[in-house]
Amino acid sequence: MKYLTTSTTFFLAAALFALGAPLLTSSCGRPTPLAPQSANERLGHSALPFHLMTPAEECVVLKKKGSTVELLAQDCSLHLAPRWALHSPPTQEGKHGFGWLQYKDQAGHWECLSVADGTLQVQDCQRTGEQSWQVHELRQNHFELGQQNNQCLFAEPGAERVQLADCGQQNRHLRLSFHPNRLPVRGGEVLGLQLGKTARFMGVPFAKAPVGERRFLAPEALDLQSWEGVRESFRPGPMCPQSSRAGNYSGDEDCLTLNLWAPQDAVLQGPKKPVMVWIHGGAMVQGDSYLALPDKKRTYNARKLSELGDVVVVSLNYRLGTLGFLGTSGRFKGNLGLRDQIAALSWLQENIGAFGGDPHNITLFGESAGAWSICSLLAAPAALPFFQRAIMERGACTSRTKEDHRKISQHLLKQLDCFSGGDAAQQESCLQKKSAQELTEAWTMTIPKSVEAAELFTIAPFVDGDVLPLPPLEFFRTQESPKPLLHGTNLDEFAAITWLLRMRGFINFAKPKNLEAIVENPAAKAHVRPALQYYKEQGKDEGDLVDDVLFHCINYQLAEQLTAQGAAVYSYEFNMPAFFNKNIHTEEIPYVFQDEESRKKAPVAHRMGHRWATFARTGDPNAPGLLPWPQQAKKQLSRLEIMEEPQVNPWSQKKSCQLLQKFLPWTMIGRNAGWVPEPPQAKSQLRAEPEGSQK
User: Fold this and answer.
1) Is the pLDDT of residue 247 over 80?
2) I need a labelling partner for 300 at 20 to 30 A (CA). Which of 15, 170, 201, 686 fits?
């Protein structure tokens, strides 16, 4: 249950039931090619640190022992910042490949690495008689370091220590990562790393920090030159402010950054690669572009996916919770999390070519709240020019109204003592004076005790008539040729934790009045009890109802609607049991990112990652050697069941979905998930299969 977290549990309870060549941007905005060619150009200087790496792609670090030093090879973790530089001394000016090998200590002081009597040592670089190192190119982007006495650094495979030996020895070289990953983008120059075949840039800003006067306002584009010098992009930026159910606050408002993994050859000057943009989940109150959740080891490290698919992978941050979705009737319009995502896509459209990506071949992919966001982006006119196709893992949509948003915002304003009698200007002044932590914790992670209260603690984009003009399912009816979509759900989602829902007390078949109370249409209230009775008769429980409301039914409607409009749609059901022999919410994520280490599961992960990347490349997830996955056909929907022995099965509308359709569109919780009233012409066309016909 690696990804089932407090935020996911809260969302479930509260939301349901609760229901090519790098580009140099000149001052006039015209791109100019910038592609370093020579080794000297790649080396940079002491202000541009790089990794030393062994052939096993471990990073070399320096450990002092008295007057001598020891070079050790360690995993290149995020906490291991590059500390090496090769700087040409005045006496060697103009001689190709020579320089002082420098190491930057924790205090930021540069010292030079030298050899005395066969022993490595470091000393102040200003001392006379300093030795220099020569760079020998082994192959493209791989170098070794040698002294003039023909002694080279090397590391035995698997050995921790780095040693000196004759440069003529074969296969014992120390490999340098002289990455040419110094790129100009909107904002300024950024410096990334090369890890094997992959270039990595992390914590790259895509908009101005939404702090001070920019808090609660739409993201503002960076200036062409937003920072001086070269920005080291070695680590992820801070996560956006968030608070766990346990009350632990973390994050920083200056969080609008993204991470990129790209094939190194594409960053240099190779052909442009397809781009996959990851939008993280976390119920829109938690999560991060790199860490799945605060203090968790599981990450969205996309290096393996990038290498498997030969694609550029991007992950982005967006504002969450109160700071991301609260609005007023004045200047604070809300939907900021969605607007942040569009701002990131706009930045990528302008700059992704510098990282080797094709700006005309961009695919969004995301899970849970990330997929929910993607459904909104598919219906957001401002976003549509910036991507070509989408992958939704376990996503819902949204049809939440302005009135829904107003109710929730008023509730939060009162909690923050900022309601001010409804005066928007006073509310906004009050909100600006609050700390980020106060604002974040106002959207409490304490699960409400009733369905009515739970409505106020579910977060979603809303139909504002601006960035989101219509509910997605209605918007898709207006599109003659919607974008290609790959989407699906996990077999069990939350059905595996029905006990938790019952324990919290707000979804219980024995208490239908709880659900009836939030149905706004008097005529629709009468359909609640028949629906609950049907679930009981079919041997289903509260967890099955949750899965239908948030995932299964809405995904069927999505496939049906887009297929009817002529879109290329591929649907799946993920069925790899993990927790108590159940397949649950979020369990597909490590398969997509190629993190499954089990030999038994590795083929499934490889096939899945290959399909995702192939869809990103061509709009079709089929490839040689894989089971054919049919595109959806009108009135003949099917799904690929992703498991050890995959198969394609028919997919029919469930009767339970039709029963829910009769009342869920008239609840805020239903609108959160995307339920909308059926158009009159569709009512006579609905077909339902008994539950027993479903797997």
Assistant:
1) no
2) 15
Count of CB atoms situated within 10 Å of the CB of 463 = 24
Mean pLDDT of the chain, nearest integer: 82
The pLDDT-based confidence of 489 (bands split at 50, 70, 90) is very high
Is 368 part of the annotated catalytic residue set? yes
DSSP 527-539: THHHHHHHHHHTT
Q: Which CATH number fits domain 39-177: 1.10.10.10, 3.30.465.10, 2.40.70.10, 2.80.10.50?
A: 2.80.10.50
Q: At 426, list the tokens.
A: 């006073």
d(CA 285, CA 215): 17
Burial 254-291 (b: 16+ CB within 10 A, else e): ebbbbbbbbbbbbbbeeebbbbbbbbbbbbbbbbbbbb
Between 429 and 14, the more confident residue is 429
Lowest mean pLDDT, pick from 112-121, 254-263, 660-669: 112-121
24 pLDDT above the threshold of 50: no
Indicate the CATH number of 183-483 among 3.40.50.1820, 3.40.190.10, 3.90.1600.10, 3.30.450.20: 3.40.50.1820
Range list of β-strands (E), 125-221:
133-139, 142-146, 151-154, 161-166, 175-177, 182-185, 187-191, 193-195, 198-205
Q: Ranked by mean pLDDT, which of 182-186, 376-380, 542-546, 547-551 comes out on top? A: 376-380
Report the 10 Å Cβ neighbour count for 594.
22
Question: What number is the average pLDDT over the span 156-170?
Answer: 78
Would you give the DSSP letter of residue 206?
-
| Catalytic, out of 132, 243, 368, 399 | 368
Give CA–CA dist 308/265, Å, rounded. Answer: 15
Note the pTM of the prediction, 2 decimals.
0.88
User: Do 39-177 and 183-483 come out as alike in CATH topology?
Assistant: no
Residue 609, pLDDT > 90, answer yes
| Geometric angle at alpha carbon 448, from 19 and 341, rounded to 5° | 65
Q: What is the pLDDT of residue 213?
A: 95
| 352/359 Cα distance (integer angstroms) | 6
Would the pLDDT of 137 be above 60?
A: yes
What are the sequence ranges of the domains in the chain? 39-177, 183-483, 489-588+634-695
